[in-house]
Structures are given as C-alpha cells and as structure tokens.
Amino acid sequence: MEKTVLEDIQERLAAVRRELEEELDRRIAAQRERFRYQLERGKVRFEKDMRKWQAEYRTGLWRYVTRGNLAYLLTAPFIYGLIIPIVLLDLSVTIYQQICFRVYDIERVKRGSHIVIDREHLAYLNGLEKLNCIYCGYANGVIAYAREIAGRTERFWCPIKHATRAADPHPYFEQFLEYGDAEAYHAWVESYRRNKTLPEDPKP
User: Fold this and answer.
1) Taking the CB of residue 19, how many other CB atoms lie within 10 A of it?
2) Statement: residue 6 has pLDDT above 50
3) Which DSSP string corresponds to 20-70?
4) pLDDT-derived band at 203, boundaries 50, 70, 90
5) Which residues form a coiled coil (predicted)?
6) Phi, psi at residue 160, to the nearest 5°?
C-alpha cells in the first residue's frame, strides 16, 4: 500500500526524533564529563573541587533579596500560591490512573519520568534560588505528567482528531481517526470491542 504524504513526513519526523534523542544523550554525557558529576542512585554527585568552584559564583541570600527586582518579589505570592492546585492535580491524576488505568488495561505513566528535581545540588545557587528551581521542576513536571495521563485517556475513549489544529497536541494525537470519518470510527469501535486495539503509539 502506497504511503500518503503525511505518513512519509511522519516517518521522517520519527527518524529525526530518534537522531535528536541520540544527540541529546551524547550532549548530556559530554556535560557530565566537562562539569565532573555522576548520577548515583538517581542523585547528582559533583567532584569536591567542582563544588568549590561553583560556590564561588553563589550570590548571598541577603544580597539576592535586597538587590532583586521589587516587582518580582511582589509577584511571588501569585507564583507560590499555585502550589495548592498543582499538588491537588498531582494527587488527583495519580489516584485516577492507579484506579482507572488498571480497569482500562492502559499502561500507567511513570511519575518519575516527568517530575525531575535535581537543581538543588548546584552549589552556585543560594537557598532561595534552589527553592525556586525545586518548585519550577515540580510544577512543570506535574503538568507534563498530567498531560501524558490525559493523552492516554483520550486515546482510549475518543481517538478522533479535531476539526482545527491545536497548538501542541500530545504525541498520540496524530494516530487518531480523521474528524468526520464515521465509517472509520464505527470500525474502530467494533474492533476495540473485539480485540481491545487502540490507535498505535507514536513511533519513538
């Protein structure tokens, strides 16, 4: 069967993504060697002299606060006020997938693959900067984690494309059925009921 233009582009894009992943892995390995750190049981360990060098660039906490932008300081309650809904989102989607994904027979999302908190090991950050980095890593990680859970849920219940393009759809979206194709949707429903087949996962 002849490939469509879209399928050809998707295959080439998948190949580029694999190449990108390989290049990113090489770059991370080079950065570890350059800045002399290793991962031990998931924790970052810098060589002693490297930590000493980093500490020379640390801005003291008092100086950081008193010489900072006042407008930035005044917005802090709005930023940190979001911690409550973010924690609730984290808890909610975790409970949801632990219960529902087992029922739906969907592979569960690994929380630790999305929520990465490791910047507190950097000696050139003061205590407040470390707290900010922990918060940003957690908040963005939770959103990515929830997005992946939502994407797998959509793939399970309603794998149909939209009439208009979304700005940045989750990676499963391109495998969805075409908008308006009633025949394909009906065939998919019947196939799912018999074989439990979902739209294919995106190619790595």
Assistant:
1) 10
2) yes
3) HHHHHHHHHHHHHHHHTEEEETTEEEE-HHHHHHHHTTPPPHHHHHHTS-H
4) very low
5) 3-33
6) -125, 135
In this predicted model, what pLDDT tens digit does every residue of 56-83 receive, in sequence order?
999 999 998 888 889 998 999 999 999 9
Q: Which residues pair with 162 in a beta bridge?
A: none
Q: Which tokens go with 110?
A: 């690994």
Q: Say how far apart CA 85 and CA 158 lie, in whole Å.
A: 27
| C-alpha to C-alpha distances, 3 to 11, 171, 203, nearest whole angstrom | 10, 20, 16
> In angstroms, rounded to a whole number, what is the distance separating the alpha carbons of residues 170 and 9?
17
**CA-to-CA distance for 142 and 109, rounded, in angstroms?**
12
Alpha carbon distance 127, 60 (integer Å): 9
Residue 124's closest CA among 50, 67, 68, 69? 50
130: phi then psi, degrees, rounded to nearest 5: -65, -40
Contacts of 120 (CB under 8 A, 6+ apart): 130, 133, 134
